[in-house]
């Protein structure tokens, strides 16, 4: 027997909008302000991403939030041809390396989703897309790298 989804498609897409938690609230407050904020450990002086309550390197709990430059480079990616709630295929799912050092998973926008336009180490800049109540950080080629 086939499974039928009786909920409207918009409800399905809404389920894929992240939810803020106490650990992630400063991150989401930053995106709402148009800033990319990550945590840094004051014990070992190393920034990291994703938000958490202790440093993944030294276990320290003396953490602070820093505002990133928004610059990154393309570390790895896949071009997904599969439809997903809230996304129109093809979608570029990527790992970017922030100028500050940490890597984060994101989407690449503003460039054709074809390998010739997505060389590794491509300079990128953060931008934000509104999804539900949250502004989601995505990356696009830096202005000097825009392919016309």
Biggest β-sheet description: 5 strands, antiparallel
Gross morphology is globular
Number of strands: 8
Beta percentage is 35-45%
Percent of residues in helices comes to: under 10%
User: Topology as H/E string?
Assistant: HHEEEEEEEE
Across the major sheet, the strand order is: 6-5-4-7-8
Count of runs of 4 or more consecutive helical residues: 2
Rounded to the nearest angstrom, the radius of gyration is 17 Å
Flag low-confidence runs: 4-10
State the end-to-end CA separation: 49 Å
* Estimated structural class: mainly beta
Mean pLDDT figure = 89
Characterization of this structure:
With 148 residues, the chain is mainly beta. The chain is 9% helix and 36% strand. The protein is built from two helices and eight strands. The strands form two sheets. The protein has a five-stranded antiparallel β-sheet, with helices on one face. A hairpin with a 4-residue loop joins strand 1 (37-41) and strand 2. The radius of gyration is 17 Å and the shape is globular. Residues 4-10 have low confidence and may be disordered.
Q: Which terms would index this structure?
A:
single chain; 148 residues; mainly beta; 5-stranded antiparallel β-sheet; 3-stranded antiparallel β-sheet; 2 helices; 8 strands; 9% helix; globular
In short:
This protein has 148 residues and is mainly beta. It has helices at 9-14, 25-32; strands at 37-41, 46-48, 63-67, 71-80, 91-98, 103-108, 123-131, 134-141.
């Amino acid at each position: 027997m086939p499974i039928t989804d009786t909920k409207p498609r918009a409800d399905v897409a809404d389920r894929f909008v992240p939810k803020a938690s106490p650990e992630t609230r400063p991150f989401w407050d930053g995106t709402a302000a148009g800033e990319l904020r990550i945590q840094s450990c004051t014990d070992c002086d190393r920034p990291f991403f994703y938000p958490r309550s202790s440093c993944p390197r030294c276990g320290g709990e003396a953490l602070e939030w820093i505002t990133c430059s928004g610059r990154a480079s393309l570390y790895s990616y896949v071009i997904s041809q599969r439809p997903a709630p809230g996304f129109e295929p093809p979608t570029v799912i990527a790992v970017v390396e922030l100028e500050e050092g940490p890597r984060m998973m994101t989407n690449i926008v503003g460039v054709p989703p074809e390998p010739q336009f997505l060389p590794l180490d491509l300079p990128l800049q953060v931008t934000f897309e509104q999804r539900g109540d949250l502004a989601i950080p995505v990356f696009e080629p830096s202005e000097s790298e825009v392919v016309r």
